[in-house]
């Protein structure tokens, strides 16, 4: 693998750390509406970033390990680690990480030199990730992979021995939160535990995994079924103390996913939510802050939404006005079955609904008031025949020059779990990296961690959570540059500004 060494007095590589002194350029903007004036002041802030160079042995625990994503992810890690190849009617295939921004995308260093994104700073190698997890279904990981019908059969056969050894831990199940149609697979669950005992059990499981596997650190990621939204209630889940007290009182309106996240926060383990539900109730966000533990969510951004957050960015930034966006989906996997229940569909509808907001709000020429915002409609139907090969059909109607109409119709065969699996890897690898990064400015004595709501992961999430009072960014290109430019800052190189002045305005001696 290529090794990048930065030649600058602002950057030091020593045995334990990379230290980077970095001038962050931003702008302070004040608006005087009375005089119709905007004043912009360029601001330079000197940051020092410290990145631990030693990559730990990483353990990943998946909630919903036996699902389509969980089993495909596990098979993907093993197949890559064992460098497996398999025969199909299209010829010999070999394991890869296509679709992973950390493993399969490149960044421009300068002068047309592109390097793999994961060579900028030390990152976990996917081959070294140790996987464990929970599922309400007792199927072992081979049986889960077979049930998922995602990977080619000749690959499944080669993985049979290894995957059969992997058994999900018993999990927390509450039939009130996922669809009733899931109850038939719930044969691997804790019964008669109070909410507080459930939290303790998850904490014990994390410690047990850590001890038995010898990993240095653990990250937990929810890839279990979509739950319904929980009610936000004063005295129940509005503050950290109220939430902890509610658990002690064994209150019902605390979802299994929140219980997992609370257990992780109390164990000091980062928790990522790959589903749409509101796991991170206000009390949980406060608890994570109190314990200085990373949380990130919500809902993997894999197919339809990813395209939407590119397409609307392109249209609106080109001065074209999308007026209606209609998205139909049909899918036939267990996720689709779960989402065929109204309360669980509602969670998904909410997370899919706000994904163009920032782009629309950015252009007051096209959208002067909220009444001008585009119609946005999302439909999901369960059709067993299409299995994991989700179909997403979108129609974008835009207003163009002089009352013209431009209509784009897109048919997307999503191959759901094959799109989601690389995102799981990226979420975990970037989250782990962020645990090794600290920073300070001239105003700080001690190094700090990034905010506990880890918004750098927004690129991978449909409804990104951000720290309080922070603008949400949905635009995919902007989210991608956020990752790239922060990684560059860690080694003291400037963000790409695409000006290419060295070619357009060549300095003469
Ligand atoms: P799946 O139904 O195949 O897998 C979910 C697994 O979770 C099942 O094995 C189920 O038994 C298990 N489960 C349910 N409740 C549990 C609990 N309380 N504890 C432990 N296990 C539990 O679904 P999937 O296709 O793997 O998708 C997983 C999640 O990811 C869904 O919420 C889905 O909406 C979300 N998601 C998927 C994609 C994608 O696949 N492209 C994109 C965005 C979001």
- Give the overall silhouette: globular
Reported for the largest beta sheet, the result is: 5 strands, parallel
Number of helices: 15
Helical content stands at 25-40%
Radius of gyration: 24 Å
Uncertain residue segments: none
Our estimate of the beta-strand percent is: 15-25%
Structural class: alpha/beta
Please provide the count of β strands: 17
In which order are the strands of the major sheet placed?
Answer: 9-4-10-11-12
Bound molecules: nicotinamide-adenine-dinucleotide
Molecular structure report:
The chain has 509 residues and is α/β, with parallel strands linked by helices. The chain has 15 helices and 17 strands. The strands form five sheets. It has a five-stranded parallel beta sheet with strand order 9-4-10-11-12, with helices on both faces. The protein has a four-stranded antiparallel beta sheet with strand order 1-2-3-17. A four-stranded mixed beta sheet has the order 14-13-15-16. Helix 5 (195-213) crosses helix 7 (256-267). The longest helix is centred in the last third of the chain and has 20 residues, at 416-435. The structure holds nicotinamide-adenine-dinucleotide.
